[in-house]
Amino acid sequence: MYDKRYGSIAPTQERFEEKKQHYRELRDKFRADPRAASELAAWKKQDNNYDYQLLNENHRAFIPPGLIGKTFSPSFPRWVLTDTFFSEYANHNAPDLILSETRRSYIIGNVASYDGRQYPSAVSGKRPEGQSFAHSLVIPKDRVYNVVDPAATADNCDLIREMRTHFISFWNSPYSVGKAKMLARAKRAVEDQDKKLRAADGGSPPAYEAVRDDVFAFFEATKPAFEQLKTSDFVCGFHVFPDNSIGHLHMHVFPHADAFRVHSTREYDWKTVPVEAIVEVEHEDQD
Question: Please, what sign has the CA dihedral across residues 121, 86, 39, 27?
Fold first, then answer.
């Protein structure tokens, strides 16, 4: 029996069924595309000469073209066409960005702040902030493109089950280590965005300066309630192709209660499909 309590993400059984149907339709459409299997195979082999028409349509899922041949640090490999921001994650990112690791997956914090007030120039439809306080992600180590990739749901959804189990174990880790790491990563994202705004030519926008103190006060005020959450208080969900922004499987993890989403975006709620909905669809479709 799967927990279907998802607050404003999926407040009713009817909404949960809609999420299931949304996933089923997009999965079937992707797998029926004659380009899908060959492009997945080429991407997993890191074939940088392949013409990716489906997986990287409009250059939106792989690394941005402007980063190809560049690197974030001299110690990291240079980006190539088939890279994404999550593929071979440990090779391209500092170790402290990885909050937890198992044999199959990483937990990382969202590098974007969860507080939309730190993005005063952002426009509707392209909100960069997280979906909730301390929005985090679980990503597989192996190359799996999206939840529509058959590898994501093979063997009775073994991989995405592991990803959710990884988060549960991390959150319930002794001495609240997992909670402390998520909070530290969330605070760092707020601080990093604050530095970017204040370092801009002319200083940070007046609209941000007017709320800056409250941005930090909100973090401190929200911490105690966040630390008391149970794993059932979190959404663990996926953005299903073609509604994904990064072409590597990643599970969004964030608290669903409104109190944690006061300053976060809700623009992507419609496309966030909980892991339980996907598992149920796969189970039903096997019968």
Answer: negative
